Each structure stands twice: as C-alpha cells, then as structure tokens.
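Hi V.,

You were right to ask for the full record rather than a summary. Here it is.
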Amino acid sequence: REWRAQEDDWQTTFRKVEKKYGYDTYGGNCHMVPNHAVIVLALLYGDDDFQKSLMVANTAGWDTDCNSGNVGCLMGIKNGLAGIDKGPDWRGPVADRMFLPTADGGRCITDAARETYEIVNVGRGLAGQAPVLPKEGARFHFALPGSVQGFRCEDSVESRGVVAVANEEFFPAHANDRDRCLALHYRGVAPGRAGRVGTATFIPPDAFKMTGYGVVASPTLYPGQIVYARLLAGGSNRQAATVGLYVRVYGANDELELVRGPARMLAPGAEATLDFRVPDTDGRPVCEVGVEIGGESGAGTVYLDRLSWDGAPDVTLGRPREAGGSAWRRAWVNAADHFQEPWDVPGLVYRVTQDEGTGLVLQGESEWRDYTVSTRMRPHMADAIGVVVNARGLFRYVALVLTPDNKARLVARHDAEEIVLAEQPVAWELDRVYEVSITSGRDGTVTAQVDGGGGLSGTVAPDRARGAVGLLARVGRCEFGAVRVTPYTEGG
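Predicted structure:
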C-alpha cells in the first residue's frame, strides 16, 4: 500500500515486488508469498475494475492461473455480476461450466449456478432454514440472471440451426409465469440441418485428453434414468417447431454417437414436457444431454424452462462388446494403487490391486437411492474384497466385504468410524469367484447376499442411504466382473 501511494505505474511497483518477494527469495513450486504479492498488486492498481485488475495479475506473469483466478474471485464477490459484465464478455465463453474433480465423481461435471445453490443451501441448512430449490429442484433451471448452466450451441456441418442461447424471461406479462428460461434462437432449420444445444454430463471431448490437471469424473446421467424437459415455443414463431431430447455417448474408439429421444411438434405459443428414458448404451458413458430442433422448423425461438432427470440407473458397467476406447473405464474414479483389465482371467472385467490399506474405484452420483448392485468377485492373495454402495467419497460408504477369516461382513464406514452391521460365515477360497449383490433402500435398510445364500441386513441413517457404487480391495489383488446396477422398489 505504501508503494502504491508513491507510484502510479504498476509495472514499476511490480519490479519492487520481484526484487523483494520474488521466486528467487521464496523457493519451491509457486510459493504463496510472491503469489500473494501479485494479488495485492492487482487489487491496488486495478481501480476497482474487473478487467483491469485481471490484466495486472495476468501480465505480471509468474503463477498466472492461480493469481488471476483469485483476483477474479475477489472482484466478483466485491462488485457482483454488474462488475463482471461491465467490460467484455467474460461469462459467455465459459458458459457457467465447472469441473470439480474429487473422489465424489458425480459432482465433477457441474456448473456455476448449480454450485451457487449448493453453497447457499449449506448455509441455509446451518441456519435451520429450508433449502432453495428453483423449479421443484430441477438440475437445470436457469433461474439466475445470465445463467446458461453449460448449454452451448453445437457447431457441426449438419447442425448449425441454433445461432444463439440466452437467459431470458418468458411470458413477462404473466406475473405467475415470470421465470427465467434458456432461449434457443434458431434459423435455417430444415431437413438435414438441425439445431442442437447441449451440456456435458461427463468429461467432454475437449477435456478428455487434458494433460497436467486431468479431469477425474463419473457421468451424471445413465441408462435407465428418465430425462424430462419443459419447452415453450415463442408466440411470434411463424410455424411449428419440431423439438426433441437427445444424448451423446462415447462409442467405439471414443467417437461420439448421437442417440435421439422422441420428438414433438410445438405450435407457436404452445408448451410441452418431453420424457426420454436413456436406453442401454452397452457400457458406454453418456457425455452430453440436450435439445434438438429439427424438421422444417425454419426460424424462431424455443424456450427451455427446465431439464432434469431422476430415478436409479438400470445399467451394466462393464467392457463394451465393441472393442476400442477407454471412456468406459475412465468413468470410474480410481482411488486404488492399480486399476486395469485382467488379461488372464476370462469372464472378469476389472482388476483392482492395492499395495497398502484400502483401495476403491467408484462410479455414480451421491444422490443415487433405492438400487441393487450385483457383480462377481474373485480374491487373489488379498486381505479383503468387497462391493460398495452409498459412497460419498472415500470415507463414507457401505460395503459387503469378504475376508480370509471366512467371514462375510456388511460394514458401514463414516469418516474414521467403521461399524459391522452384520456378518456370517463364508468360506474364503483363493481365486474362487463369488456371486454377490447388495441392495440399498431409501429408508436406510441395506441387505446383501453371497452366492444366493442367506442374506445379511442392517440399517444406516436415511440421510446416508444414498451414494455411488464401487469396488473394494484391501492389500492385495482382486478381480471383478461387470457391475450391474438396477432400481429397487420395496417388495419388488
């Protein structure tokens, strides 16, 4: 601050920063003291302007990603969206998209609006208040000003009919229907020339081969789940619009394949809710969901009011029949020392080897409820082998575990605590293949079976009866078959 009071040229002051606080003084990999100095420098010389503050931080050099990110965050908190939108279009190219790579893989592919409500509702929960859930809790609701929640126009040879997406109010004259929507402005839509707008549900192609900071994620959408969307046609459209839902899947050799749902005709001013049950994809992950405007729609506007999906998946997580590509294995969050395909064990799909402690590979979302997981397990010189449900990270899960002391145990792990819910004798045999299943009910009831024998059962708190699925290996090598996840209904 003293240097700023003495000098109006930020570059002159930066040379002072470099001399006193440089990386030659504070060694290591991007030490926080030089970084902190650049952040303070940008805030002092940025004249309370988002663009200028970022210019100073970025032009100074050094650790530009972290420093510019922190400066942008602080300026956003201080001056809000108005400060960000005052200059060039910073938000448009990003389109709210966010990656949050953690062991909770279903949280990775997300967007700024979704995370805003997550943080707000954590605060409301701590204050004893009910959560805020726009549009009945829809995943994509566009309720915040300017939010597009990751949706972008597809730019391909056969799909250039949608020319813009924008967050707008629909039916502004009707007080009860003054919600924000995603406006899809299209033109030139004709047979062979559709318009598609989509958002990522798994690692998108432009990030799939990212080096350095790799993306660790699970898909957010799976076969068997039902996608629904509320769509409204602009009243000034000159003709009806043909609209439908679609998903994209990583196919053979990780090439994208388009899978369409049923389409509907929307007359000008009409509205419709579309449902689309995602079909079996042969183990290939779903990487995008979106809206297609096709047929002879011409030009006009369709408003996407909301889009979401629900229900447990009905999916087999295994090696696709058509060889080629790695997306199906990348869909697992690998928290084990070694995770690979077993080349020497016919009929099994995954090998998990753990050098020390417990290794997990996980897939799914933390909100999965009411499902059954079944697979085949083959222990080989291991301290334990297991299948996991209700996983929300590496230290919160329920597992059916087999151990060399000839026991099958149903265990619940919550942070540092692991309790045995139930156990029964099961012979431990080297390289024997066991048929296992475990069911998690919404009420907290968990049941499990080994080779179709008498079941183990226990209960957990209902708020813990949700989460991803996984495979477990403890100090040793274990093989597993394809993992089948199916919806569970009580009594069915």
